[in-house]
Amino acid sequence: MAVQRHVLENGLVVILKEVQSAPLISWWVLYRIGSRNEPTGKTGISHWVEHMMFKGTEAFPAKEVDKMFDRLGGTWNAQTSFDYTAYYETLPADKIDLALRHEADRMVNARFDIEEVESERTVIISERQGLENSPLFWLDEEISAAAFRVHGYHHEIVGDLHDLRTMTRDDLYSHYRRYYVPNNAIVVAVGAFDPDDMLSRIRQHFGAIPAGDTPPLFVRPEPEQQGERRVTVERPGHTAFLEYAYRAPAAGDDDFYALTILDSILTGPDGQIDNKTSRLYRALVETEIAASIGGGLVPTVDPYLYTIVVTLRDGRTIAEAEVIIESEIARLVAGDVSQAEVDKAKKQARASFAYTTETVTGQGYWLAFAENLGSYGWFEGYIDRLDHVSLDDVKAAAIRYLRPRNRVVGHLIPTGLVDGANDEDDDDAE
Fold it and tell me: Residue 293 pairs with which residues in a beta bridge?
């Protein structure tokens, strides 16, 4: 069915898609605020506010909300990313009013009790320390900091430890009040409903919420990189990692699609399809230099990164892996790409896209996500735009983006120490 887009008088963007394949509705509320909009001193604040939104309101006490959704056979959750914070509920179609009432209420009436704030401070610091148990977290953090010296993509979504220790209840509540307003939100419903009836219900629950002042978004453009940057991280463990991070275009750029094809050729497709036919899998994993190889191109509002991550086998060196990667990159830049490889990458992308959008929850997410990028049409036209990528487009993207001056290269060197050893970095993370 066709997608409908409406804007209420208070600025709330409404996206509706009728899908009658199952008696379910997925309801999403996405706020245009994420980690990219956080200045130094407030890093991690969007993620922390997301946590506080689960502490309940007078009408929906925290201890009761889980029971409400469980009794109806529903699911609910949330996520914070670089460019947004989003909440969703998926319920039987005739019970969806619970989700609408719940999200409308906590858009206005969320509690930020000081005791809950302090309790959640401990939880979020523990969450960050849990992430620090992964060597790749440390490497990714150093690479992001090297790649983005000005832009908010500089820091991890969870935030810097110092900021998590020093932010106040008033900081969190001010962030909530400033950005959790209808004119900074996108709501999406996908499932078994009549669009006119659903729009009427949304107006009933959200229409009377007043618009806020246009929220000021903290965004600073990143200057052009002037040469290759390298970082080295030493962490306890026995496994070495190598990561390449090339500057990549924003999701709205035509080059994004050509680089997506390149990624599939080089490291394999995203999603549930294996990457065993990709160039770097054959060159690194089949030769037993690497235990695994992966790549990633994240659709973002502003230009971000295309990453290649290699997990080395015991006894093999980062230098060996770099030689192989440099050789494969050089082939691509020289134009050594075939039409057959491009066609295969497109076929794999269509299959992966189908896997991630087969449920109403998946479709709801992607419609909200795409509207935040600029238009829900980004999601609707994704496969078509990939299909229009030519072999020449792919070759041009390799020359434009896969350049040494356009990248950060990171090495993670294992120290051989076991976790919990008396390591100075570990003490700093406590």
Answer: 310
Residues 46, 38 contacting (CB under 8 angstroms)? yes
Residue corresponding to tokens 């209840």: 169
Q: Can you give the pTM of this predicted structure?
A: 0.94
Q: Is residue 8 scored above 80 in pLDDT?
A: yes
Q: How confident is the model at residue 122 (pLDDT cuts 50, 70, 90)?
A: very high
Which tokens in the block code for residue 79?
């996520």
pLDDT in tens, 74-105: 999 999 999 999 999 999 999 999 999 999 99
| Domains detected in the chain | 3-206 (3.30.830.10), 229-429 (3.30.830.10)
Cα(123)–Cα(48) distance, integer angstroms: 10
pLDDT band of residue 418 (cuts 50, 70, 90) is: low
Residue 180 φ/ψ, nearest 5 degrees: -95, 65
CB 210 within 8 A of CB 119: no
User: Do residues 32 and 20 lie in contact, with contact meaning Cβ atoms separated by under 8 Å?
Assistant: no
* Locus of tokens 């050594």: 336
- The CA angle 388-262-293, to the nearest 5 degrees, is 145
Which residues, at least 6 apart from 335, have a Cβ–Cβ distance to it below 8 Å? 395, 398
Q: What HEC string does the chain produce?
A: CCEEEEECCCCCEEEEEECCCCCEEEEEEEECCCHHHCCCCCCCHHHHHHHHCCCECCCCEHHHHHHHHHHCCCEEEEEECCCCEEEEEEEEHHHCHHHHHHHHHHHHHCCCCHHHHHHHHHHHHHHHHHHCCCHHHHHHHHHHHHHCCCCHHHCCCCCCHHHHHHCCHHHHHHHHHHHCCHHHEEEEEEECCCHHHHHHHHHHHHCCCCCCCCCCCCCCCCCCCCCCEEEEEEECCCCCEEEEEEEECCCCCCHHHHHHHHHHHHHCCCCCCCCCCCHHHHHHHCCCCEEEEEEEECCCCCCEEEEEEEEECCCCCHHHHHHHHHHHHHHHHCCCCCHHHHHHHHHHHHHHHHHHCCCHHHHHHHHHHHHHHCCCHHHHCHHHHHHCCCHHHHHHHHHHHCCHHHEEEEEEEECCCCCCCCCHHHHHHC
| Strand pairing report for 407-414 and 229-235 | parallel
Tell me the pairing of strands 75-80 and 304-312.
Answer: unpaired
